[in-house]
Amino acid sequence: MTMCYNAQADEGVHDGTAIHHLPGVPSAEQIAKEGVDLVRMNALLLAKVEELTLYSVGQEKINQQQQAQLDEQQYKIDQLEKLVHQLLEKK
Description:
Helix content: over 70%
Number of helices: 3
Strand content: under 5%
Order of helices and strands: HHH
Radius of gyration: 24 Å
């Protein structure tokens, strides 16, 4: 069985605002009052694990891009420093 989930970006999760549980997941209070369907909960938790995994992979890709950009900027800074030193030595 293949399951596919759409990772839904909830800004509240990412921006640090107060969220007491994952979006789409019943709260502990709600579970205590209403009980829990274990099959549904397992599918829901699996979906959340997949969403977090995909988010993590996306963050790693962004980190790699940022590192490449930093490396390029450092190279340019080093080249500029060399040129400055050469210009100062000619004076």
